[in-house]
Structure formats: structure tokens, C-alpha cells
């Protein structure tokens, strides 16, 4: 049997499921053995067969064990790229929902989540339904579930798209992580438009070099058809190589400089931003509660995706203006105090620099920053994050983020190396994140801004191999309520 024959069979037989996890295999299922960064699916061909897999897809040239299922010897299908085959089979098993949607994607180190929310807002302003898959949620229109990965596996995506189609969605917007792109999790989906935001220091524990990191991002654009649209940040140096690699038409976007799609910032306060959106000789005003020049760039990327999907500029501007905020992205903690508390997901040095640079000119008092670094992740960014915060913040609290299996004290030691003056009076080390938040809010004076950086929308903290309930926003609210009740300061 060939892969094409298996695709035809899976498309016509709704009782045959496609699996990439041998533990989920049931009699008659298709099992795809995918080589991965942490484990190799070929090592689980035996268990898959023992569970009754009738069809086993494997990589060409690999030695295959002599196995049998309860109903006889499985049919083996050799392919060059099992992950790509998995994406195609996942779509076939669910009625090819991707073909019934206008698919949009965004990749880059930062801005992906905000852009997906903006795109959905624009599509809804046009009177259409849009499914969303990203870092925070998977929203199919039929259900909204928290995400465990920025970009899930191909089976999860195909099932989510099936639900979107059933819920009468016409569009899907998805965050495309570099991990997912390097692992071909988006195989089987044709994208009408894809956007690139930027490339900064992150995920070097996985990609090892910046060149490999960029190559992973570029795969989204080399897969675009000539009639598709590549929406590229003119102000990101890496965009040039992506433009040369894609067959798609290119929309360049830029803030305060000429481009196919540009924005001229009119004003920015702690309450929001006003700018003029310009494209093909047309202009439209946007008023958004989102702050920062980088968020204006995010609006442009979203606008480019929507233009690529066929929306007009006026509808796009209305959709951009109607979004009230993005969870954990410079999200204001509601309170009656005379200082501001903001929660943001910034967990790299570049992201912290963008956020702090945005807030500093808007802050009439002191800029107080609480931050830490995640364990079991890229260690090289820890001292860089410290250097950024030391340069831009007035009061600093170093604490834990998600330590995972690392000791918080070890992570903090790595952070402290980046401070030029680690004994400064404006710097406090408090490994207990809840206590650090309490101290930061207790220290705030009128007109100060307190930034709780790193965890953003997350409602948990990972210590060891366990998750504990933990929300920066909820804890900040508790602290503000306590401060209001006691009348401190």
C-alpha cells in the first residue's frame, strides 16, 4: 500500500483513527512513527502493533521490527517524511477541514499571541467567524480550552479545525512556533497568508544557533503558494532572507517609515495608543488600548494578514480598534489605587526592553519591575535580562518564574551575574514570587508603575514536575485589596 492509497482509505473510513502516540492506538488504527527531538516513534512500533494497529507508517530506510498485531501482521508504508505524512493523514481522517477554511499564520519570537487576537477581532468586524489556536487558548467556536503548547500536534490541529468548520467558522488564525515548524506540525495546511514579526534571543536550548532558529521560521514561508501573501517586518533584518526564500507575494510593513503597510503614531499614553494606518494610498485611524511601538507593529502584521485574506482597510481598522486587550500582554490589573500595576508575558531580554522602554516615558513616578527566569530553558538570556532591567527600571525585585526542575537559587544566581551593581539598594532578591509581588506593591508610591513580568496570562507555577495554581494578576488584586483595606501609604 502507498501513502496515497492510505489517504484515500482513511478519507472514506471514519472508523479508522490516525495516531502518533502508541498508547492511544486501538485495533484497526493507523500509527505513524515520527522521529522526534526527545524520542523516536520507531521505538514504539512494537507496542502500537500489539495494541492492534493495522497500518504503520515509518521512515524510509529504517529497519522495521518483525511484529504482529492481534489480527495479523500490520501493513507497513514507508515515507520520506513521517511528520508530513501525519499531517496529511490527520486532515484526511477528519474530512480535510483545512481545505474549508481560510488559514492564516504568524511566526516570530514575539508578538504572535497579540497578532492572533487582533486578526480574529478584524475578521469578526467583517461579520465572519474565526477559530484561533495559540499560546493562551484554542478557540474553535464550539469550545475554548487552555493551551499547553503554542502550536499543538497535527492531530490536535486537525480536530480543532473540524470543530471550527462545524461551528461555521470561515477562517483560522494560528501561532506557528519554531519548534512546530521544525517538526512539520503544520503539514497538510495551505496558508492564504503568513506573517513574520521578529527574531530575538530565545529557544537557543533547542535550535542551538540563530541560523537554525531563522531556518525554522522560514519554513512557513517557503511552503506558501505563489498566490499567497507573506507579511514581513521591514524593520527586522531577517525579513530579507525570508523574502528571498518565499514564492508568495510580499507585503512589507513598518512603523513611521514608508512600506506597503505603514503606521504613523499620533499619541501614546498609559490609557492607549492612536495611530494612522496607511496602505495603497488609503488611510484609516486606529485607537487601541495596547501600548508600545512594538504593539503598533503587531497591529500592522495583523492588518497585513487580513489584507491577504481579502478584508478592506476600513474594516481592518475597525477590528483593530475594537479589541479591548490581550490576556497577560501589558494587561492592567483593575484597582482603585493611584499607581498602576501591569502584568506582561515578557520573558526574554528583548521583550523586557520593549515593555520597559514603552512604560518609562509614560511613568510619572518610579518604574518598579518584578521578574525572574524559567528553569530548564535557555540559560544564556538570564544575565541579559538582568542588564536590561537594571538599565531601565528604578526599583527591581528578582524572583522565581517557573523554576521547573532547577533550584530557584541557581536560576537567580545566573540572573545576578548580569547586574553591574548587584548590591544596589534598589535591587531586592526574593525567591518566593508571591512575596516579591507583595513587596513590590507595598513599595509603590503615587504615579508609580509596577510591572509583573514573565508569566503574563499563566495561571500556574511549575516547581519540580508539578503545577501549582498561581496567577500574577490574581495575587496582585489580592495585594491591592489588602493595601486598600489597611490604608497603607
Task: Considering the chains and any ligands shown, give keywords for the structure.
489 residues; alpha/beta; Udp-n-acetylmuramoylalanyl-d-glutamate--2,6- Diaminopimelate Ligase, Chain: A, domain 1; UDP-N-acetylmuramoyl-L-alanine:D-glutamate ligase; Protein-Tyrosine Phosphatase, Chain A; eleven-stranded mixed β-sheet; 16 helices; 23 strands; 34% helix
Describe this structure as you would to a colleague.
By secondary structure, this protein is α/β, with parallel strands linked by helices. The protein has 3 domains: 3-92, Udp-n-acetylmuramoylalanyl-d-glutamate--2,6- Diaminopimelate Ligase, Chain: A, domain 1, CATH 3.40.1390.10; 96-322, Mur-like, catalytic domain (UDP-N-acetylmuramoyl-L-alanine:D-glutamate ligase), CATH 3.40.1190; 331-486, Protein-Tyrosine Phosphatase, Chain A. Helix content is 34%, strand content 22%. It has 16 helices and 23 strands. The chain has helices spanning 3-12, 45-50, 82-93, 112-125, 154-166, 178-182, 204-207, 210-222, 239-245, 293-308, 313-322, 349-359, 381-392, 408-416, 433-443, 472-486; strands at 18-19, 30-32, 55-59, 75-79, 102-107, 130-133, 137-139, 144-146, 171-175, 191-196, 229-233, 249-255, 261-269, 272-279, 282-288, 331-332, 340-344, 367-371, 395-398, 427-429, 449-453, 460-463, 466-469. α10 (293-308) crosses α11, α13 crosses α14 (408-416) and α15 packs across α16. The radius of gyration is 24 Å and the shape is globular.
Amino acid at each position: 500500500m502507498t501513502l496515497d492509497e492510505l489517504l484515500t482509505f482513511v478519507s472514506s473510513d471514519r472508523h479508522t483513527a490516525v495516531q502518533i502516540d502508541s498508547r492511544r492506538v486501538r485495533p484497526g488504527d493507523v500509527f505513524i512513527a515520527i522521529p522526534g527531538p526527545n524520542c523516536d516513534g520507531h521505538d514504539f512500533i512494537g507496542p502500537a502493533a500489539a495494541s492492534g494497529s493495522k497500518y504503520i507508517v515509518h521512515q524510509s530506510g529504517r529497519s522495521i521490527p518483525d511484529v504482529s498485531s492481534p489480527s495479523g501482521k500490520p501493513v507497513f508504508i514507508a515515507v520520506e517524511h513521517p511528520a508530513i505524512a501525519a499531517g496529511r493523514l490527520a486532515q484526511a481522517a477528519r474530512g480535510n477541514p483545512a481545505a474549508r477554511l481560510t488559514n492564516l499564520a504568524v511566526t516570530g519570537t514575539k508578538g504572535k499571541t497579540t497578532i492572533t487576537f487582533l486578526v480574529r477581532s478584524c475578521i469578526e468586524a467583517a461579520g465572519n467567524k474565526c477559530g484561533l489556536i495559540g499560546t493562551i487558548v484554542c478557540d474553535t467556536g464550539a469550545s475554548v480550552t487552555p493551551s499547553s503548547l503554542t502550536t499543538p500536534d497535527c492531530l490536535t490541529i486537525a480536530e480543532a479545525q473540524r470543530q471550527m468548520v462545524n461551528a461555521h467558522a470561515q477562517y483560522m488564525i494560528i501561532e506557528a512556533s519554531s519548534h512546530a515548524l521544525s517538526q512539520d506540525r503544520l503539514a497538510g495546511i495551505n496558508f492564504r497568508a503568513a506573517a513574520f514579526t521578529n527574531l530575538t534571543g530565545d529557544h537557543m536550548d533547542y535550535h542551538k544557533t540563530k541560523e537554525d532558529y531563522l531556518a525554522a521560521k522560514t519554513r512557513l514561508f517557503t511552503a506558501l503558494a505563489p498566490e499567497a501573501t507573506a507579511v514581513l517586518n521591514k524593520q527586522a533584518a531577517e525579513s530579507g532572507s525570508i523574502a528571498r526564500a518565499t514564492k508568495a507575494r510580499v507585503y512589507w510593513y513598518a512603523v513611521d517609515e514608508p512600506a506597503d503597510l505603514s503606521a504613523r503614531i499620533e499619541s501614546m499614553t498609559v490609557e492607549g495608543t492612536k495611530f494612522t494606518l496607511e496602505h495603497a494610498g488609503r488611510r484609516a485611524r486606529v485607537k487601541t488600548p495596547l501600548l508600545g511601538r512594538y504593539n503598533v507593529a503587531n497591529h500592522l502584521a495583523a492588518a497585513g494578514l487580513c489584507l491577504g485574506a481579502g478584508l478592506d482597510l476600513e474594516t481592518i481598522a475597525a477590528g483593530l480598534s475594537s479589541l479591548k486587550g490581550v490576556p497577560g500582554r501589558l494587561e492592567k490589573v483593575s484597582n482603585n489605587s493611584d499607581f498602576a500595576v501591569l502584568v506582561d508575558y515578557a520573558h526574554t531580554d528583548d521583550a523586557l526592553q520593549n515593555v520597559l522602554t514603552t512604560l518609562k516615558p509614560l511613568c510619572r513616578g518610579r518604574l518598579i519591575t518584578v521578574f525572574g527566569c524559567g528553569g530548564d530553558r535557555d540559560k544564556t538570556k538570564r544575565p541579559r535580562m538582568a542588564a536590561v532591567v537594571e538599565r531601565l527600571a528604578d526599583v527591581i525585585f528578582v524572583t522565581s518564574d517557573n523554576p521547573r526542575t532547577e533550584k530557584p537559587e541557581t536560576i537567580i544566581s545566573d540572573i545576578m551575574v548580569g547586574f553591574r551593581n548587584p548590591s544596589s539598594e534598589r535591587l531586592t532578591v526574593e525567591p518566593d514570587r508571591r512575596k516579591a509581588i507583595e513587596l513590590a506593591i507595598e513599595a509603590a508610591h503615587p504615579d508609580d508603575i509596577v510591572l509583573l513580568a514573565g508569566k503574563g496570562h499563566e495561571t500556574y507555577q511549575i516547581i519540580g514536575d508539578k503545577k501549582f495554581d498561581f496567577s500574577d494578576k490574581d495575587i496582585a488584586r489580592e495585594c491591592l485589596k489588602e493595601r486598600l483595606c489597611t490604608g497603607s501609604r
